[in-house]
Amino acid sequence: MAVPTNYVFTSGSCAKSAIYQLICDQLTAAGWTDIASLASADFKVFKSAGNTGDKNLLLNIRDTSAAATNSIVTTDFCAMSYRLQDTYVPGATGVAGVFGRPTLAWSNLYIAPVAAVGTALGKDTVVNYKIYADASKLILEIEYPNPSGLGPMVIYMGEPDSLFVADSASRGVLVAASAQNPAGASLLSICNSSDTVAAVTAPYNLNSYALLPPGDPNAANKFSVSSIYYGSVAEGFRGKLDGVKCAFYSGTNLSTGDTITIGTEVYYVVITMVQVSTAFPSRALLIRIN
What we know:
Blueprint: E1 10-15, H1 19-29, E2 33-34, H2 39-42, E3 44-48, E4 57-62, E5 79-83, E6 88-89, E7 98-99, E8 107-110, E9 126-133, E10 137-143, E11 153-158, E12 162-163, E13 174-177, E14 187-190, E15 204-209, E16 225-232, E17 236-247, E18 259-262, E19 265-271, E20 284-288
Antiparallel strand pairs: 1-9, 2-3, 3-4, 4-5, 5-8, 6-7, 9-10, 10-11, 11-13, 12-17, 13-14, 14-15, 15-16, 16-17, 17-20, 18-19, 19-20
């Protein structure tokens, strides 16, 4: 599969309880395959060769929280969970497979910007979403109805295409969320070190950053739109979060639903509701709709 040059999102709506299946269906449609040999033990283990066709990307997810309670499909709670596994070998049919990190803990991944894992929101709540998926990644934007009191949120799972180091296998797979971000503020969780560095035994965190001026728009009513990069002091800049951009947010200069045009490309503005922490450098995120 060719590496994308455009990341255009599609829109839809569904019940909150259908978000997990939406994620699974979109990954499958984009070329990921669930290779779990025993779903009751291994849960979903999505594998893909990536957009470059030479990777072994893995996404291990389940519909329950990190504590293995309260499915987002069958209950009103709002946290699914994931693990950034480096390898997985399926067992025989009906036999659990072997993970490279068998004792790795699950991390919560919220689908709503609620205050805590024990906060409920009716599973039949209808949400609007915008979603993008390819053989390397899935990006999901979710908007809850006004009476819920919840703002939008954005989830990013998988490997970006703009890598500035060599990331083979599943090393470059990451997870970032705009609310209750597991890694903490302005951090994303990444599976492993890059190829030139010795592999590590557990995922770790990298910083996200962008070029954001102290005020927007300028005197010509133009906004500064920035790509989002990630890296660390030790690793330098490692990659770019393709498919999502950001802008400075003052609290009044932008609103969810605004559009910004860059050349012939139209971007939809999402003012995310930050709850506890966000992986992104700004609350104002931009996703392409045309």
